[in-house]
Amino acid sequence: MACGHKGREFYANDPEKLARYDMAMRHIEAAREEGQSSEEIHAMFNRIMSGNTAGKCKHRKG
Q1: What is the mean pLDDT of the chain?
Q2: Please, what's the b/e burial string for 32-41 (b: 16 or more CB within 10 A of its CB; e: otherwise)?
Q3: Which of 6, 42, 43, 60 could form a disulfide with 10 if both were Cys (CB 3.0 to 4.6 A apart)?
Q4: How many angstroms separate the CA atoms of 45 and 27, rounded?
Q5: How many other β-carbons are positioned within 10 Å of the β-carbon of residue 21?
Q6: 19-43: pLDDT as tens digits
């Protein structure tokens, strides 16, 4: 089942949402590499885009 979320160009006029989208896509790629399910990935995308995150990402570098 394909996700129907809007693409990057949809957020081009809103810098905050565009930054969230880019961050979400980086996290999704890492989650796919770890073998997470599409349901988990979709939930993660929704959390990031809504701003409901704790900011303690295990993929954070630095």
Answers
A1: 82
A2: eeeeeeeeeb
A3: 6
A4: 8
A5: 22
A6: 989 999 999 999 999 999 999 999 9
